[in-house]
Write a structure and sequence with these properties.
The complex is a heterodimer of chains A (239) and B (410). Chain A has 239 residues and is α/β, with parallel strands linked by helices. Chain A has a domain of 165 residues: P-loop containing nucleotide triphosphate hydrolases (Rossmann fold, 3-Layer(aba) Sandwich). Helices cover 31% and strands 28% of the residues of chain A. Chain A has 7 helices and 10 strands. Chain A has a 6-stranded mixed sheet with strand order 6-7-8-3-9-10, sandwiched between helices. Chain B has 410 residues and is α+β, with helices and mostly antiparallel strands. Chain B folds into 2 domains: 188 residues, no CATH class; 177 residues, no CATH class. In chain B, helix 3 packs antiparallel against helix 11, helix 3 packs antiparallel against helix 14 and helix 11 packs parallel to helix 14. Chain B is elongated. About 1% of the residues of chain B have low confidence. Classes of the chains: A alpha/beta (239), B alpha+beta (410). At the A-B interface, helix 2 and helix 3 of A face helix 1, helix 12, helix 13 and helix 15 of B.
Chain lengths: 239, 410
């Protein structure tokens, strides 16, 4: 069953009259529970695609169905609700609130959700434990290492048990060891907990943790293939 | 988003930039402080003035020389010589003013009272023997002089509470002699303390004939106090006195009256209106600083919105609606200004209290501090409104941001 269907998706940026064609005619489906990596060189449109899929930006052509519903049918409030309940985001630059504790950062999506307040603490703690940061629970986010920050961001993406996790270059700011830990956690979320994962990366090594790689070039799909030898040998994350 | 968490989020946002938040609310603090200060001092002045009039009964009529001259300013009264003995006798006549219970002239002067080495500046009230009845005050030691003392121009005085304290300290005053303007007077009574609402504590009473002879050296009166028989007769008595004096002074045009007949209620009302208007005017001037403060708030909130663009993007990505973001920034502005309001109220009250202390200590007035409850409530409401009004624009700007552009912002 498809969670995402895009048909002839297009995006033209209009910057004070200067038009830039970022995506044109992109079509693909993503099934529930799939782990898809989107690759491509700078300017290929991969980030634009992720932003549109994550409902963070509008598209200018084609159609986008999320969970079998055309997203043009949603009003802004419903879009915010989908982002809150069905999507989780992990960004390259972590985007944590530096002066808030790990637990407070992870709780953030719950503040905007319909989850009863009494469950917030439990859910947030479970998510922090799931990324192996239980010993950092009360620490301010600014005091963490890069790898730890990204694990907090994953816990935050996870806390509302979303359908899809969007990860935009999650290992881009990390050293190779921390990067490996992070990507293995993301793979585990997909393999063991069944979350659909859409990963943007420019590293083939990282992309091979996915089961399918969509390559973009100049705003078009260059290739869309299954990963032959999927990387499953990660042992850094053991929970 | 649950409102409790909206407030918590807003407070956390402000806590992150403590010194900026403090500087931002300075304008509001100054505005509310000034308003509280002005209104409190205005109320103090009003209480002082009205308290002095309150000593008079509701049926008391005061005839003053000159046109519209009342209140604590005695200069016009003492300089004007329109009220003479002839007028007093005409008013006393039942044929002219049938419902006057008491008629008593007063001569107001001032001078230094001396006892031994103690000196104290006093107000001299030359009056008749009816003072205890009209002003409802009886000496708690000794006795008040009588109309016989007026006729014989006795050199006797009844002194106010403070005069006794300053001149005699703990000694017995009754029977002692004091000097005022080179005349020696025998103290025959001491008045009880009247407190802030009266200037009797700083005064000495003596027969008005004695005052005219030894203190002012004049033949006219500073005022004539008339007590009407009852409330019902008050207005007709005012009219009778007016007619009598117009006849006596050959005045046909009421606009040319050289006297003023007024009741204690009239004086209280007029002075109340004047001080209220003055207070309102000064408070309005102070309120301008609230607008300036509001613009400051708007400015800083706009900076804050720009600075926290990424946070706004993140919150939106995590599910915050435009309304959630707008509420957060609006609450930050309102919490800031309301806090400024509270600080302003506290600061204004403390300053007003200190100034009241200084006035009563150094100006010798029985000035009492009063906390302006209504101004404080209004100050809190207005400061919150300033936050609401000047916070709307920055909050809307924040809510309008596209999540992606906000996240991309560096």
């Amino acid at each position: 069953m498809n969670i995402i269907e895009v048909k002839k998706l297009g995006k033209v940026y209009d910057n004070e009259g200067v038009k830039t064609d970022a995506l044109h005619g992109v079509s693909f489906d993503i099934k529930k529970g799939e782990f898809v990596a989107i690759m491509g060189p700078s300017g290929s449109g991969k980030s634009t695609l992720l932003q549109i899929l994550g409902l963070l930006d509008d598209y200018t052509g084609g159609s986008y169905y999320f969970d079998d519903k055309n997203i043009k049918d949603y009003n802004p409030k419903e879009v915010a609700r989908i982002r809150n309940e069905k999507m989780g985001f992990v960004f390259q630059s972590f985007n944590l609130l530096p002066n808030a504790s790990v637990l407070e950062n992870v709780k953030l999506p719950l503040l905007y959700s319909n989850v009863p307040e009494k469950e917030w603490e439990r859910k947030a703690r479970e998510a922090v434990i799931a990324v192996g940061l239980e010993h950092r629970m009360e620490q301010d986010a600014k005091l963490l290492s890069g790898g730890e920050k990204q694990r907090v961001a994953i816990a935050r993406a996870l806390v509302n048990n979303p359908e899809v996790i969007f990860a935009d270059e999650p290992t881009g700011n990390l050293d190779s060891k921390s990067g490996e830990v992070v990507i293995e956690i993301i793979q585990k979320l997909n393999r063991e907990l069944g979350h659909t994962v859409i990963l943007i990366t420019h590293e083939t090594y990282t992309a091979e943790y996915a089961e399918r790689i969509i390559r973009l070039y100049d705003g078009e799909i260059e290739s869309d293939k299954k990963v032959e030898n999927r990387r499953l040998d990660g042992a850094a994350f053991t929970k | 988003m649950i409102f409790k968490y909206s407030i918590k989020t807003a407070v956390n946002g402000l806590k992150t930039h403590k010194s900026r938040s403090a500087l931002t609310i300075l304008g509001i603090v100054i505005g509310i402080t000034s308003i509280i200060l002005v209104v409190s001092l205005g109320q103090g002045a009003q209480n002082l003035i009205l308290g002095q009039i309150k000593g008079l009964g509701a049926t008391t009529i005061i005839v003053l020389p000159g046109k519209i001259s009342f209140g604590p300013s005695t200069a016009a009264e003492t300089m004007n010589d329109s009220l003479k003995e002839k007028d007093l006798n005409l008013i006393k006549s039942k044929a002219n003013v049938p419902y006057a219970k008491y008629v008593m002239p007063m001569v107001v002067g001032a001078g230094q009272s001396v006892y031994g080495s103690n000196v104290y500046q006093v107000a001299v009230f030359g009056a008749g023997g009816l003072v205890p009845d009209i002003f409802n005050i009886t000496p708690d030691k000794g006795y008040f002089f009588t109309d016989d003392d007026v006729t014989s121009r006795s050199a006797v005085v009844v002194i106010g509470y403070k005069v006794k304290q300053r001149l005699f300290e703990n000694d017995e005053a009754v029977g002692q002699k004091i000097r005022i303007k080179n005349t020696t007077f025998k103290v025959i009574g001491v008045l009880p303390e009247k407190g802030s609402s009266s200037n009797f504590d700083d005064a000495v009473f003596m027969p008005y004939t004695t005052t005219q002879q030894d203190i002012t050296g004049t033949k006219y009166y500073s005022r004539i106090v008339v007590e009407a028989d009852s409330d019902a007769d008050l207005q007709s008595t005012v009219q009778d006195i007016t007619n009598t004096l117009r006849d006596s002074h050959n005045i046909t045009d009421p606009l040319k009256d050289d006297f003023t007949v007024t009741t204690s209620a009239d004086i209280a009302k007029t002075l109340g209106t004047i001080t209220s208007a003055l207070t309102a005017f000064l408070a309005a001037v102070a309120a301008i600083s609230l607008i300036v403060g509001g613009v400051g708030i708007m400015n800083i909130m706009l900076v804050s919105v720009t600075e926290r663009t990424k946070e706004i993007g993140l919150r939106k990505a995590l599910g915050a609606t435009n309304g959630d973001i707008q509420t957060q920034f609006l609450l930050e502005a309102v919490i800031l200004t309301a806090l400024g309001g509270v600080i302003g109220i506290i600061l204004g009250s403390i300053l007003a209290f200190l100034i009241s202390l200084l006035i009563s200590k150094f100006a010798g007035l029985d000035w009492q501090y009063s906390f302006p409850v209504s101004a404080a409530i209004l100050g809190l409401v207005v400061s919150s409104l300033v936050g609401l009004i000047f916070g709307i624009y920055p909050a809307r700007q924040a809510a309008k941001k596209s999540p992606m552009e906000a996240l991309r912002y560096e």
